[in-house]
Specification:
The chain is an alpha+beta fold. The protein contains three helices and seven strands. The strands form two sheets. Strands 1-2-3-6-7 form a five-stranded antiparallel sheet. The termini are far apart. The structure holds nickel (II) ion.
């Protein structure tokens, strides 16, 4: 297993659209294992392959308190979403320290493949629902700040750029 580098906003690679996984094989299972290791090390509740510069439709999540309920979703698809929406304060490993409110459908039904390539379906609400929708956005090249106003987003962009200049002086 290996820790992967997490792309930091506004890295343009975060806006690439991920391709479907053709076959769930050992190569994909290695990516999944590395993504879990990276997510747990960064204390995140979810990670999309896009964030580690792998542009394939893979997400890993664990919203449990004990950090012992890993779930991988390969080629996830939302088959149903509630008309009821909820506002949550979201954060992202690609934007450490940045949090803002995003409104999304409350409940979703997602179909995906697991690490053995078997299809499954889950109904998610609460944090898991938010997390899966947030990670699925990443696969579309979308970061949660893309849901905010341009004004807010630009402010966050300059904050991130300023921080990156301080961390890695040219
Ligand atoms: Ni994120």
């Amino acid at each position: 297993m290996a820790l992967l580098d997490i792309l930091q906003y506004p890295d343009p690679r975060l806006h690439k659209v991920a391709k479907p996984v053709a076959a769930v094989d050992e190569r994909v299972r290695t990516i999944v294992a590395d993504m879990f290791e990276t997510m747990y090390a960064a204390k995140g509740v979810g990670l999309a392959a896009t964030q580690v510069d792998i542009h394939e439709r893979i997400i890993v999540v664990d919203t449990s308190e004990q950090r012992d309920q890993p779930m991988v979703l390969i080629n996830p698809e939302i088959v149903r979403r509630s008309t009821d929406c909820k506002e949550w304060e979201e954060g992202c490993l690609s934007l450490p320290g940045i949090y803002d409110k995003v409104t999304r459908p409350d409940t979703i039904v997602v179909r995906a493949l697991d690490a053995r390539g078997e299809a499954f379906e889950i109904e998610a609400d609460g944090l898991l629902s938010v997390c899966v929708q947030h990670e699925m956005d990443h696969l579309e090249g979308k970061v949660f700040v893309d849901h905010l106003s341009a004004l807010k987003r630009n402010r966050i962009k300059s904050r991130m750029r300023k921080r990156q200049r301080e961390v890695q002086p040219a």
